[in-house]
Specification:
Blueprint: H1 14-27, H2 32-37, H3 43-51, H4 59-72, H5 76-88, H6 93-100, H7 107-121, H8 128-136, H9 141-164
Helix pairs in contact: 4-5, 4-7, 4-9, 7-8, 7-9
Length: about 180
């Protein structure tokens, strides 16, 4: 199998160098997984536009989806990154672990997490009970579409890390 190394700013196209500079300003560093996307001349810009697009899900809901999808897909990099981001969005360590285990004490968030896990496990399919529970907690068709898009965003990153196994540059999330 080809060994992937994390490209440096000098290794990527001038377009991606500009994106690296923006990430450095915004985050203080270029996360290794983003840097790895920069092997593609257009991939990083395309992915960041997709990831940062407006959605009907709030930041906590997006992080809950990111955490459970990363857990289902076995991506330690994304589990680690979204543990940090989850805390930045108001989750406690205990809440993050609960979400990664597949639930939440908050009933609405619990319905979202359970459906996201079911969709991820079943490759786009889900039990009618979980779908009904999602809608009974006030979620809409718009939320459903945005949930699927969020799952696809996170699954792509999970697959990229699971394939490349580039180094994790966040505090490593605890094993469950």
């Amino acid at each position: 199998m080809t060994q992937f190394k994390v490209p440096t700013r000098a290794d990527v196209s001038s377009n991606n160098q500009s994106i690296f500079d923006n990430l450095e300003k915004a985050l203080g560093f270029v996360p290794n997984l983003y840097a790895t996307i920069a092997y593609s001349d257009h991939g990083l810009a395309r992915f960041l536009a997709y990831q940062n697009a407006k959605t009907s899900l709030n930041n906590k809901e997006k992080e809950a989806v990111n955490l459970i999808v990363s857990e289902v897909n076995g991506c330690v990099y994304c589990q680690s990154a979204h543990t940090v981001l989850g805390k930045m969005n108001g989750f406690t360590d205990e809440q993050i672990l609960d979400i990664r285990k597949g639930g939440s004490l908050d009933a609405k968030l619990n319905a979202l997490v359970k459906l996201a896990a079911d969709i991820t496990i079943n490759r786009g399919n889900a039990s009618q009970q979980k779908v009904d529970d999602f809608f009974s907690h006030g979620y809409s068709n718009e939320n459903m579409v945005d949930l699927i898009l969020q799952i696809s965003d996170k699954s792509a990153m999970n697959y990229l890390h699971n394939f490349t196994k580039i180094p994790i540059d966040f505090p490593v999330a605890p094993e469950l």
